[in-house]
Amino acid sequence: MTLSEKRDTGFLGLDLNGSRHRAALQIFLVIVVAHWAEHLVQAAQIWVLGWSRPEARGVLGMPFPWLVEKEWLHYGYALIMLVGFWLLRGGFVGRARSWWTAALLIQVWHHLEHLLLLLQSLTGTHLAGQPVPTSIVQLVAPRVELHLFYNAVVFLPMVVAMYLHRRPRADELARMRCSCRQVAHVH
Asked: In angstroms, rounded to a whole number, what is the distance separating the alpha carbons of residues 71 and 116?
């Protein structure tokens, strides 16, 4: 196996940025949509059903409240999304890669905020003397609204990247080495 082949093989020997890029992107999109579902259900529980914020725990937080109380659920989503953005980045070229990288960089911050929340939950020491785990930006913005915002600002460049990846310019198509190349519509 050449050095180039080893580099392209990727995570656990899977060719995530070559022959399996399209399938990996589809799986990643399902995870991202599941993350959105958690936040949207939580928002509906608060603003449509009139539940208190502590009662509004999203989809998985209802049957498994410890996932939300200890911050594991959203930290897990944040970490999986960060890893997904990183692992799948190599399959993108040109404009799509720029947008994907923007989503990755925003997700780095989003992940750090969730890591901070998880650490506070596990240690019982809260930021700025707050009574509950609190992220940095949460010091000035309510948590539910903040996380809807974070998910939107990560999701938007991700969707743009995927759109451009499926509709590359001719020069970008020539540089594509992933399975998405076969279904791309040249623009």
From this structure: 10
Q: How far apart are CA 167 and CA 178, in angstroms?
A: 14
- Residue 152: inside a domain: yes
Residue 131 lies in a domain: yes
Token pair of 103, please? 């989503």
Question: 13-30: per-residue pLDDT in tens?
Answer: 578 999 999 999 999 999
- Non-local CB neighbours of 62 within 8 Å, separated by 6+ positions: none
Domain encompassing residue 140: 18-183
Q: What pTM was estimated for this model as a whole? A: 0.88
Residue 184 and residue 28 in contact, taking contact as beta carbons nearer than 8 Å: no
pLDDT of residue 2: 46
| CB count in 10 Å sphere of residue 103 | 24
Written as one letter, the residue type at 89 is R
What is the rounded radius of gyration, in angstroms, for the C-alpha atoms of the chain? 19
Q: Is residue 5 part of a domain?
A: no
Q: With b meaning 16 or more CB within 10 Å and e meaning fewer, what string describes 165-179? A: beebeeebbeebebb
